[in-house]
Every structure is written in C-alpha cells, then in structure tokens.
Amino acid sequence: MAVVMRLDNADAANRANNWAGTTYVFSIAGALISDSYWGRYKACTIFQIIFLAGLVELSIASHLFLQRSCDFRHGEAGRQAQHCRPPTKAESLVFYISIYQIALGNGAYQPAATTFGADQFDETDAAGERKSKSAFFGYFFVANNLGGVLAVTALAYMEDKGEWVLAFWISTAAALAGVVLFALGTLRYRHFLPNGNAIVSVCQVIVAATKNRHVKTPQQAEDLYEDGDHGDGDEHDEEDAKIKKNKMLLHTPDFRCLDKAAVVVATTPTGHRRRPWSLCTVTQVEELKCILRLAPIWVCSILYSTAYSQMSSVFIEQAQAMDASLWGLTIPAAGMGVFEILGVTAFVFIYSFCIARIVSKVASREPTELERMGVGLVISTLAMITAGVVEQQRLKHATTTTTTRQAAASLSSLTILWQIPQYVLIGASEVFMYVTMTEFFNDQLPEGLRSLGSAMSVASMSAGNFASSLLVTVVMAITCKGGQAAAGCWIPQDLNQGHVDRFFFVIAALNAMDLLAYVVFARRYRPVPLIKPAGADETS
C-alpha cells in the first residue's frame, strides 16, 4: 500500500491498521446476522461470495488503474517508491471500495465459519465429539494460517516485483476454490436454525430493567419470570416454552440490578401475552450477564491485539530497512510472516501433544482457558521486547546505499532473519491467546450467542488495530512536533533516524500492565451458569 498509494511509514501503518480493524468490526455484524436471521450455513455462503466478488473487483481495478500508476522495470516494488505516480481520486476510490468489500466478506465470514464448524460436533458426547470440538479450534487456526503461507511467500515476492495483478488473480482463484469446497459438503453438514435477534433480546433486558428500577427484587429466584413457569401466556407462548425449556439458564446472583427485568409487577395483566419490553425471562437476563462477565476479559485482550497488529504494519517497515538478501535471493518484507504461521502451526501441536500432557501429569489437570490466555499475554510481551532489541541492533548496523536511479536509501546491514524470533513468539502467543479465547468465548455463551462469542475474539483484533493506529498517532504527535524529519521522531520516513525500538518497548510495557489487570479479572471470573433441565426447579 505504501508504495502504490505513495504513503509515508506512519500513514501506511495507520491505513493498514484501520483496514484490518474494519475487517474485524464486520465480524460482529456477521455473527449477529448468522445467529439471528440467516443461520450459520447461509451466512457462510453469502459472505464468501461477497469476499470473492471483492477480490474480482480488486483484480480488475489493479489491471485497469493501479498497474498504470507504477513502473517496476527499474527496481523492486518494495524498495522503489519513486516508480509509482500518485493515484487519482477515481483510482483511489475504486481501490478502497474493493478492499473494504473484501473486509466485509472476510470479516463477517470468520465467526460464522468458526461456530458452524463447532456445530458439527455433538456436545452430549463428552468422551468423543466434545473433546474433538476442543481440538477443532486449534486445527481451524492452523488451517487458516497455512492458507496464508502462499500469500506471505510467493504472492508477497510477486508483489515485491510489481506483479500485483497476477497476485490478486491467484488470490481470487484460491477464494473460488474455497467456495466450491465449502459447497461440496452441504449435504453432510449439521444445520441449525437461527435463534432470534440477540441484540433485541439484550436491549429488552436493559429497557425492562430500567422501567422496573424502582421495583424491589425478590429474594428467591423462583419468583422471577421464566417461560413455562406461569400459566398466563397464550398458545404462542406455550409453543415457545416447549422449544426453549431445555435451553433455560439457571439464575446467578451477579448483576442483581438486571434481575428487575424479570420481576412480575402487580400491574402485569394476567391472561395476556407478556410485553417483552417490560418483562423478560430469567434466561434472557442470564444471557446478558454472560456477555457482561466476559467483558473484562475481552477488554484485556485489546492490548494484546495491539501488539499482534504490529506484525502487519511496523514489523514490515522494519524489515524493509534491513538486508533482505539471502543466497542471491531477496526476501520480501511481508514474507517474514511465514515464520508467524510456522509458530502457530508448531505450537498448536506442541501444546496438544507435549505441554498439555506434561501439565496434566504434574497437576492432574490440563491448564484452564484463562491460564492459557495469561501465558499468551506473557509471550506477546516477550515478542515486543525482542522486536525492540532487534531494532536496536538494526540501528547499530545502519547504512546508506544508492539505488539504480541514484536516490539515497537508508537501510541496515543487519540481516532480515533477525526478525524470526519476534514472528515465532507472536505465533506462539496467538495459539495461547486467540485460539483459546475463541474456544473460551464459544463455551461461555449460550447456544444462540455462540457466533457472537467467536466474533468477540475477532473484534478484539479490530479494537487492537484501532488502538495501534491511535498509539502511532499519539507517538507521532508527541515525538515528531517538528515534522517527521525532526530529531527524536520515533517513526520517521527514514527509520535510521528514528527510535522504533522505543515504540516496541512502550507496547511491551502496556502489555505487562495489561497482564496484571487480566490476572485480577480472571481470578474473579464466574463461569457460565448451568442449563436448567426441563421440569427442574432452582434448587435441583
């Protein structure tokens, strides 16, 4: 993006973070639509088609517009920004429309696909399919990352040479193959109907609790309203009760103010269907409580995502200022992401077959999801410290070279391979954080909100990208008061004149403080309430 769109380092990092953040924001919309209206299979199908259409538009736009903007015959795309003329407004508009359509298709598809895959396992089979479901999330992330190997190696190399159009068409072909493979399993999938609008249900609880704020909450949970517990409903309510009876949640004492939404006030007319904006069920209230319990854990994951997002922005800019030659070949800066993929793949199996088994023998149990996420925060902090140390070494080996067009380029004689540890550590942290968080949120939310649980883990990436963009902006505003050429600027156009190492250390310090807050919230977390069996009372 920085090359073709003629952006400086900080602006390019912010644009990349904002695009990635928007991608993950769409995951919330995709989760709500799949759970509430379309169902997960239909959502997966439609969003895949939107994603594919966006890639087609990007490929055509690159052929018609962006390819005319650049001439890479005199050098590599990643090194020779002067080979690209500034794009026109029309070219920029077409480019951004296509990439944000890709963001919609990819972002909205992810939570629906994750939950749809988990739906294929029978949770009642504790010894077999339930255990396989736990392993599924790890293997799903491995598959996602292995799919990116081609993107960060061959395609990144092609784009570095200016072959943007061909690279985009290859991506389009891969997306088309994915749609076809997904469609082939249609007859063998387990399909589930949507469960109603979760957002409306949450809003009903908030509104009803607000209306009843002056009403005294009963001491006994049995006095709160639940479908099927009262005989004042009509035929429609009785049918709903039969469907929902096996999915009721037990009452919990947390967030007592929300219980007011389920209080049957004396003025409630009998013999009439309840007003959903004035009286809610205990299950509706408990669903909102489940979301609120997860909120502190989710907030703590945002700073982790800030560290994770550096891999697609500042890490690449750091690599572009290093020696990328190896055995006569030039390693694309974005190609270093393959080591993150290898880190994810390796640590999924290392955890499953080594760490989990060793811990279970020593402690007689496997690490909990909350413990594993804490480990992820520790590893991400180490990754940022490592990146800062690598940057210090890069600055010690800073050089100035001359390009084929006699333009000065500030690089470093330090080999790009020094970045391998920070990428591997990021990959390892992803296994402990994102994989576990997806599994944890999926397990800790009721069936009708599970896509939302998957979306929450993806939305953490979104918030992290926006937080990273904000952090870059703040850092630039504080350290570059005299412009990017000012002394002391942390992320200038010429990284040899900057202090990106300090930027990495700031993120490491924020991650360390985030870890302390996470430990407090994790120790106070109360698990999801049990499902109330049909015909059972609260005490049973």
TrEMBL record:
It is a multi-pass membrane protein. One of its GO terms (cellular component) is membrane. Gene3D superfamilies: MFS general substrate transporter like domains. It holds the Pfam family PTR2. Residues 218-238 are annotated as: Disordered. It is found in: Membrane. The chain crosses the membrane at residues 46-66, 136-158, 164-184, 291-311, 331-353, 458-478, 503-522. Keywords: Membrane, Transmembrane, Transmembrane helix. Residues 227-238 have a biased composition (Basic and acidic residues). InterPro entries: MFS_trans_sf, POT_fam. GO terms for molecular function: transmembrane transporter activity. Belongs to the major facilitator superfamily. Proton-dependent oligopeptide transporter (POT/PTR) (TC 2.A.17) family. This is Low affinity nitrate transporter. The lineage of its organism: Eukaryota, Viridiplantae, Streptophyta, Embryophyta, Tracheophyta.
